[in-house]
Amino acid sequence: MNKKTNRFIPVRYLNDALVVIAAYLVALWNIGHLDQWNPSFTILALVIWYFVSSFSKLYADRRSNKFAEEIIFILYHLILFTILLSSSLFFLKPSGVYDFSFFVYFIGSNFILAAVTKYILRKNRHAAFYQGRMNDLVLLVGATAAAKNFYETVEKYYYYGYKVEGIIDDEMNNIQGCDYLGKISQLDLILKSRFIDEVVIALPTEDYSTIQRCISICDYYRTKVRILPDFQQYATSSVSIQTIGQVPVVNVGRLPLDRLENRILKRVFDVVFSIVFMLTFGLLLFPLIALLIKITSKGPVFFRQERWGLNNETLTCYKFRTMVKESADVDEDGNYQQAQKEDPRITWVGAFLRKTNLDEIPQFWNVLLGDMSVVGPRPHPTPLNIESMNTVDNYMLRHIVLPGISGWAQVNGCRGETRTTEDMQERVDFDLSYIHRWSFWLDCQIILQTVINFFRGDQNAY
């Protein structure tokens, strides 16, 4: 991490100190006791805030993650902060009014102010990355497929904050667009003559001696090292790394949702979330959308389609009808017709429903039936499954968990028409990543990002 990035870290800590103080003033003002400002409470709150951050990982570098994840960590941090602060007040009993209404205003203000200010800081940081003022300079070691993927990713997403200075490899088969700086044996000379923030080693895992030599050279120059591992052979399993003594060990273990307690937690959340949604937004949206569909086009309100779910079993997926009654799923040659941009089969009401995901609301009934989850890989129609199962790597593995109304692939832009095998492969890779790293908080993040996309819009939603 370069010096300019390091200077950004104290700004984040100072920002949160101002947030806590401002939230305290807002809370006192709302309960009518602004005159009872207590410096001791301020100090206590700040100490607990920073202490809790070591557990909540509030200040972890999430430059490559969506802001929805940062919001989830803010919520998690505030839960821990509230528990510890209220417990401390119970025992210390400082002067002042710290009742339930105070905490509602205090914690609520903390959340709003923290979310808004962190978003502003995030956008300022992105602007600095775009202008090249805070980028970490990276040297790639090894012209492998992993190195190529890394280079293309950081070039495409400038807000990750990385700039690849070049690549070294024993052969001249360098990556297009990336400067070739020499052979691996020249790593020592390059680190001596150039300023490099990080070295990313993308060598084959069997080239252990070269990897160790590169790490030793980087350690000598106190340069941060990352290794791009090749874990494709473990795509069917959950992978983690730990050490036994000084020996690194790759654990190929059960998936998170293989555990009974996780499945119960996810199912309880699905049922509660679905019921709450249907009793609030659903009561208003269902009749309104049904009426719009009925008066603007002929045909039924709901659309039913056979799709594949858990363990490749078929399910009847419910949606609001978005196409004209006469539309067909397959063309004259028997090929499945995915919805396309400006598809003539889509009604004007249907276009709005698809753009906003409101056509998916009836799938909460699928969730209550146990056929689907609120979050999971999107279920595909049977013809699309048959078409993809033999052309897309690990395609069928996405069916080892319940499908979802929204998913990790969808919030990362992989939605709409899959024109090529590569498009479907990217979607499946996101689905498998979700399955392998599932957590309750990840589900919350995906739901939040889905809501954000609803208001922001998605160019691939049609």
Task: Explain what the structure shows.
The protein is an alpha/beta fold. It has three domains: 128 residues, no CATH class; 95 residues, NAD(P)-binding Rossmann-like Domain (Rossmann fold, 3-Layer(aba) Sandwich); 197 residues, no CATH class. The protein is 50% helix and 13% strand. The protein is built from 14 helices and eleven strands. Helix 1 packs across helix 2, helix 3 runs antiparallel to helix 4 and helix 3 crosses helix 14. The model has no long low-confidence stretch (mean pLDDT 86).
What is the overall silhouette?
globular
Main sheet: strand order: 3-2-1-4-5
Number of separate strands? 11
Which residues form runs of ≥5 with pLDDT under 50? none
- What is the count of distinct domains? 3
Q: Give the amount of beta strand, in percent.
A: 5-15%
Number of helices in the DSSP assignment: 14
N-C termini distance: 40 Å
Q: Give the helix proportion (percent range).
A: 40-55%
